[in-house]
Amino acid sequence: MASESQVLKQRREKAQRFREEGIDLYPRDFKVETTSEDLLRRFGHLDPRDLEGVGEEFTLAGRIMAIRDFGGSVFSHIQDRKGRIQIYLRRDILGEGPFKFFKRLDIGDIIGVRGRPFKTRTGELTLEVHQFKLLCKSLRPLPEKWHGLTDVEIRYRQRYLDLIVNPPCRETFRKRSLIIQTIRKFLLQRDFLEVETPVMQPIPGGAAARPFKTYHNALEMELYLRIAPELYLKRLVVGGFERVFEIGKNFRNEGISSLHNPEFTMLEFYQAYSTYEDLMALTEELFCELAQKVCGGLRISYQGTEIDLTPPWPRIPMRESLLEFGLDESVLREREAALRKARELGIELRGDESHGELINALFEEVVQPQLIQPTFIIDHPVEVSPLARRKDDDPQLVERFELFIYGREIANGFSELNDPEDQRLRFMEQLKRRGVQQEEFFLDEDFLVALEYGMPPTAGEGIGIDRLVMLFTDSPSIRDVILFPPMRKKA
After folding, report:
1. Is the CB of residue 472 less than 8 Å from the CB of residue 290?
2. From first to last of its 491 residues, what are the pLDDT tens digits of the chain?
3. What's the pTM?
4. Alpha-carbon span 291 to 183, nearest angstrom
5. Under 8 Å CB-to-CB from 13, ≥6 apart: which residues?
6. Distance (Å, rounded) from C-alpha 186 to C-alpha 204?
7. CATH level 2 (architecture), domain 164-314+373-481
8. Separation between Cα atoms, residue 384 and residue 357, nearest integer Å
9. Whole-angstrom Cα distance, residue 410 to residue 463?
């Protein structure tokens, strides 16, 4: 078998011969009138005899994916954006010259064809080609035995090859697009306004994460890629946009794993005159609509586990969840008991964690992995929720929920803190705990000024689009749902 370098050399030599024969390898004058899906939808269900009277010709284009040569005739499959369809070429229909030219083409070449539909003896819808044209010569061979390939690095580095030869990959990203379209339509129908906020920000805020830095030459200032759009979106609520949302990229200069990517897509939305209870109900409604649209029902399969999205979903206070999963009540009453338990479980600690931070760490270690079916964990400690409103009946807790499915956080929402004095104190307390010299957190004075003008009672939520797509496409890794994930440089 010829090596890849030999095949590449042969293809380049063939392309040169075509040029010498006056063949345009990259023409642009072919007009496509239909797709493989259109033909299959219109004629796929018909009996072969019903197709015999179809004299209409159709024009489509695609990449050659297979060729079977029978001497005086050739069967081939071409692939366009909608799928694959079989084509049939005969010497006595095309003529000697064009027929011989087709036989010189390679798998991977892109052609345009014109012909009429019929069905083979096996019942496969096929286009009998009356004319064809080379539209793009492929100089590199497609990978062989792709479906047995286990080197996922090649799939991620050369996603275009993955998309060409792997139909499930194309379907994943079609579903990703459908999910985003459905979310956008869902919110627009509820009178939300879609907005755009800065990606480059003078102060990264809205979450505690290490930012990426950049420098603006004209402004002569350091800027940061946003870690969240939250503080800008809440400025818009102050300004009178009572329902806003943004779907966009966030950036966090942290680790990479099957669930984390430094560049990721988030939906954030804010609704004035609402509480976190309202958003939990809205979230159930949104997820049910997504499941129906993308998967056809409320029971979906993820990595071999059935997930039932039928509402209502359990709403469990974080402290109660710890007791449900076997922790002693003393960890809720005493910081030292919580600290001992965290160390016993091998949780990595700074050593100066507050009681609320320890409660949250114990939850993430003990409870979160067990939350397979959709579950809202509500009423979080105030220390880990600096932007959320305190509960009226317990100021040590906030009106916040996190949605967990398959042990993963999918959504995070809360009744927003709109008291500017309390917000300043919370920011300062977090700065004090983290250390003022550290860069993980910044005090946004302009946001505090905005709050002083008055923000109506508001609830807000963030949903990770990438993890959502993983769930609805049964994808094990976040890299499977990002078209071009970051990769280390090749050695």
Report:
1. yes
2. 567 789 899 999 999 999 999 999 999 999 999 999 999 999 999 999 999 888 899 999 999 999 999 999 999 999 999 999 999 999 999 999 999 999 999 999 999 999 999 999 999 999 999 999 999 999 999 887 555 444 788 889 999 999 999 999 999 999 999 999 999 999 999 999 999 999 999 988 777 788 999 999 999 999 999 999 999 999 999 999 999 999 999 999 998 899 999 999 999 999 999 999 999 999 999 999 999 999 999 999 999 999 999 999 999 999 999 999 999 999 999 999 999 999 999 999 988 899 999 999 999 999 999 999 999 999 999 999 999 999 999 999 999 999 999 999 999 999 999 999 999 998 888 777 665 544 445 688 999 999 999 999 999 999 999 999 999 999 999 999 999 999 888 76
3. 0.93
4. 11
5. none
6. 29
7. 2-Layer Sandwich (3.30)
8. 6
9. 6
Give the domain ranges of the chain.
4-142, 164-314+373-481
Write a three-state SS string for the chain.
Answer: CCCHHHHHHHHHHHHHHHHHCCCCCCCCCCCCCCCHHHHHHHHCCCCHHHHCCCCCCEEEEEEEEEEEECCCEEEEEEEECCEEEEEEEEHHHHCHHHHHHHHCCCCCCEEEEEEEEEECCCCCEEEEEEEEEEEECCCCCCCCCHHHCCCHHHHHHCHHHHHHHCHHHHHHHHHHHHHHHHHHHHHHCCCCEECCCCCEECCCCCCCCCCCEEEECCCCEEEEECCCCHHHHHHHHHCCCCEEEEEEEEECCCCCCCCCCCEEEEEEEEEECCCHHHHHHHHHHHHHHHHHHHHCCCEEEECCEEEECCCCCCEEEHHHHHHHCCCCCHHHHCHHHHHHHHHHCCCCCCCCCCHHHHHHHHHHHHHHHHCCCCEEEEEEEHHHCCCECEECCEEEEEEEEEEEECCEEEEEEEEECCCHHHHHHHHHHHHHHHCCCCCCCCCCHHHHHHHHHCCCCEEEEEEEHHHHHHHHHCCCCHHHHCCCCCCCCCC
Identity of the amino acid at 97: G
Residue 75's φ and ψ, nearest 5 degrees, are -100, 140
Distance, CA of 4 to CA of 7 (rounded, Å): 5
Question: 4-142: which CATH architecture?
Answer: Beta Barrel (2.40)
Q: How far apart are CA 214 and CA 110, in angstroms?
A: 42
